[in-house]
């Protein structure tokens, strides 16, 4: 199942998001060795995980985190604008309908075939959510480990500038254009997953 | 220093290309733009019997291509060999890479150097569930690679690979079927088949009858179009449904 969470919460928050921060720590800190903050020795949570962050999260039948991605509004501080602006050779794309994708994470507990299904489901959900919200552009930063997979998803993806060597990896900024044709482009690429998307925030707010 | 605008317009040109000719011309432009002379991009497959939706494009001389085909160098390509297990691009020849090559690999590399492939930069492309591929840029002079262009080379090559992949998939009628999905029980019998168990042994291990174990296996074979048992093992490993450690662990 895919759930959308609007606004970060951790510690006494939601078990699903806690599982996501834990898997992010396993992937980005333990496996890839990124220099990013770790909270309580277990959760990878940075300055952008705030009330403006949106998370698209895939869970299994037990409600455990299987994969996720973070959407940040471009009008607020975000990774490309605040940390790596030099990857963009023109103006950094900013606007109400422009969001940044970051922290794409697949659970290390799943094996390759399942990770691929989750990757496609999260991507489809990101596209459907964008169409629902009127988001027409995503920016993202890609390094050599992920670039081919991002491109192979089938959407329109172009460079924003010359890539650079950052911490030994070829790294560049990309822009992904989203319009009503994007779901068909995913279908052609074989990455579209028909699904129902649950807005987890609605229940949370009603309860609060 | 290379120009960002030109870099971006070259990548756009790859996606706008309608056919192999358009791709070839754009690649020629990109190769010159990056300061190289030769390029080759494609899947690492048997070039004499290329599988569906695979591709290969290069501006190598016909003399070298004839030698590659005639001597079947593509089956033991040293650069393709060095792509195994890595995502990052690599410049060659570098001594720590060359140490991993065997006699036949070194021979092919020396023959290439005689044909003016003195040094180069190669970008591996590994997509889950697909044939591996790569893109190589080469120069006829040794030690002239400008390392500051390599990130641009990596990104441009990755975009080019994707643009050609889309053309090839469309031309092949999108002939890439997603792998079948299996239940937990079906995956258990797949692993046991990989471990060489008989139906009776599977039944004992799983606490079910021999006949029931056989039924589970039959459904697995059917999901792959009545595949043979040996071929099934290769397919499930290739499709990522099972991994080598799972298959090879002791019961």
From TrEMBL, chain B:
InterPro entries: Sig_transdc_resp-reg_C-effctor, TF_LuxR_autoind-bd_dom, TF_LuxR_autoind-bd_dom_sf, Tscrpt_reg_LuxR_C, WH-like_DNA-bd_sf. CDD domains: Sigma70_r4. SUPFAM superfamilies: C-terminal effector domain of the bipartite response regulators, Pheromone-binding domain of LuxR-like quorum-sensing transcription factors. Keywords: DNA-binding, Transcription, Transcription regulation. Pfam families: Autoind_bind. Residues 179-236 form the HTH luxR-type domain. One of its GO terms (biological process) is regulation of DNA-templated transcription. One of its GO terms (molecular function) is DNA binding. This is Autoinducer binding domain-containing protein.
């Amino acid at each position: 199942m895919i759930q959308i969470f609007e606004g970060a919460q951790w510690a006494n928050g939601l078990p699903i998001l806690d599982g996501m921060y834990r898997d992010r720590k396993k992937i980005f800190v333990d496996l890839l060795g990124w220099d990013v903050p770790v909270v309580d020795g277990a959760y990878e949570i940075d300055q952008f995980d705030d009330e403006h962050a949106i998370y698209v999260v895939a869970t299994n039948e037990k409600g455990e985190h299987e994969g996720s991605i973070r959407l940040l509004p471009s009008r607020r501080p975000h990774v490309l604008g605040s940390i790596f602006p030099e990857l963009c050779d023109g103006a950094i794309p900013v606007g109400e309908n422009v969001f940044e994708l970051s922290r794409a994470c697949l659970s290390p507990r799943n094996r390759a075939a399942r990770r691929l299904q989750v990757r496609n489901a999260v991507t489809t959900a990101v596209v459907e959510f964008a169409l629902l919200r009127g988001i027409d552009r995503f920016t993202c930063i890609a390094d050599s480990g992920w670039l081919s997979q991002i491109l192979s998803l089938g959407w329109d993806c172009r460079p924003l500038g010359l890539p650079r060597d950052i911490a030994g990896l070829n790294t560049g900024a990309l822009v992904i254009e989203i319009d009503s044709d994007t779901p068909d482009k995913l279908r052609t690429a074989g990455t579209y997953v028909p699904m129902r998307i649950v807005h987890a925030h609605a229940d949370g707010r009603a309860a609060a | 220093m290379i120009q960002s605008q030109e870099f971006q317009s070259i990548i756009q040109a790859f996606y706008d290309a309608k056919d192999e000719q358009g791709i070839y011309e754009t690649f020629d432009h990109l190769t010159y733009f990056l300061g190289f002379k030769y390029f080759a991009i494609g899947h690492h497959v048997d070039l004499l019997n290329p599988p569906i939706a695979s591709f290969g494009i290069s501006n190598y001389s016909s003399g070298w291509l004839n030698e590659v085909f005639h001597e079947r160098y593509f089956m033991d390509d040293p650069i393709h060999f060095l792509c195994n297990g890595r995502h990052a691009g690599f410049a060659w020849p570098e001594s720590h890479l060359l140490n991993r090559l065997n006699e036949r690999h070194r021979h092919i590399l020396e023959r290439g150097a005689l044909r003016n492939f003195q040094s180069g930069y190669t970008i591996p492309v590994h997509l889950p569930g697909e044939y591996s591929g790569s893109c190589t840029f080469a120069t006829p002079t040794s030690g002239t690679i400008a390392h500051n262009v390599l990130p641009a080379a990596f990104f441009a090559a990755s975009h080019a690979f994707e643009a050609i992949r889309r053309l090839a998939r469309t031309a092949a009628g999108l002939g890439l079927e997603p792998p079948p999905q299996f239940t937990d029980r079906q995956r258990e019998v797949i692993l046991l088949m990989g471990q060489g168990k008989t139906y009776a042994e599977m039944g004992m291990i799983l606490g079910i009858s021999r006949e029931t174990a056989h039924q589970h296996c039959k459904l697995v074979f059917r999901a792959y179009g009545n595949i043979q048992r040996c071929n099934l093992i290769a397919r499930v490993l290739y499709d990522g449904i099972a991994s080598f450690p799972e298959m090879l662990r002791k019961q």
